[in-house]
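Researcher: We're teaching a course module on how sequence relates to structure. For the next exercise, students receive a sequence and then see the predicted structure as tokens, so they can try to spot secondary structure elements on their own. Here is the exercise chain.
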Amino acid sequence: MELNREAIERGARAARLSTLTLLGLKAMANESIAASTFTEHSSFTQKNLSESAVEDELMWLFRVGLVRREVDGQGITERFRLTPLGIRVVQELETGQLQPLGLADQLSNWFTRLLPS
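Model: And here is the predicted structure for the students to work with:
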């Protein structure tokens, strides 16, 4: 699957500014993870988060296209998994060869998060 470079850069910016750690993102590459798991595993987040804060963070990554919600026979679950874009972003983050983020990146990410979806 060919991914747009702009989408990869936008996803990498969102992931790097996220309160979720690379370890937390990588966990979702291997299996679907319940949102509540992020409140129980401190290594998955940069700081302790409430369940609603975790849900907000995951929904932002959903809007950017890095994660998807799992669906079962009953409908949407509270579990999340990386999308192909999310897997690509994690691979790029693991190389450590990304440019440092500046204030403009942080402001752009913050303003975009405030916009309604």
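Model: If you want an answer key for the exercise: The first helix runs from residue 5 to 16. The mean pLDDT is 87.
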